[in-house]
What we know:
- The longest helix is centred in the middle third of the chain and has 4 residues, at 149-152.
- A hairpin with a 5-residue loop joins strand 4 (73-81) and strand 5 (87-92).
- With 259 residues, this protein is mostly beta strands.
- A five-stranded antiparallel sheet has the order 1-8-7-4-5, with no helix packed on it. A four-stranded antiparallel sheet has the order 12-11-14-15, with no helix packed on it.
- The protein has two domains: 17-146, Immunoglobulins (Immunoglobulin-like, Sandwich); 154-254, Immunoglobulins (Immunoglobulin-like).
- The protein is 2% helix and 41% strand.
Amino acid sequence: MALHMRTLKWVLCGALLVTIITGFSSGTSETGVFPIPVETIKPPANLTVSVQLNQEGMYTTAVFRGGHGQSLLKEIQVDVIHPDGSKDSGAIGNVVGDFVTLRGSGCGDQVVGTAYFKNGMSYVVLNEKMQYIRGICPADYSETIDPCAEIAASPALKPDPVQEIPFNKSVIIQVNPDISTIEVQFRGGFGQNMIKTLQVTRTGPDGSKETMDLGHSIGDEINFRATNNCMDRVYADVSFIDGTMYHFYDEVIHISRMI
């Protein structure tokens, strides 16, 4: 049982996580400029969070993907701002995989997210302009090329079938990506004390591979450097002291663009 979640169709290859000046109104800006101008400020390293955006038609889904500020995070307020200044809002929690789906216009909406932390601090951490959707947006359509489409088509990123581990030997890992690293944590399982080796491999779209041994004490972690700003494949193999081996985790990990 791995802590991961399958999301809607991937359209944008991640979310630009930045901090911007607060105080914009629910309508258009005073200058009538859209998207709303922002000034980016790098947040403290211990409060970084990662959000993945998926767009399908008029709907945008924001998915929480972890980060160093996860344990301190209270919630992330997400606003989908339409070109006419109206907006739809929702919130996601601090559990990896939490998500909210909001209705937009399909006409290049602006998505802004504000992270609220348990210590009272808050940061506007997300600012992304979504795509124009042909057939939905009646005006000002411009073709948008998905920069991750070519990478997603790489044969090296095709996962292999995984093997089901017997319940009494279950192993749990958690994968947390950001722009520069992919963190893999050991999260326990009934087979924890029977593990002989636990190897995790990061594969890039060019076929390059890096393999590391992950410890099997809860909280043990390893970090891979992401090969690009779109996606890498991560898979894990475990062997037990009874001689059995399992290829139990194999996923394409979407990388969030974070600064």
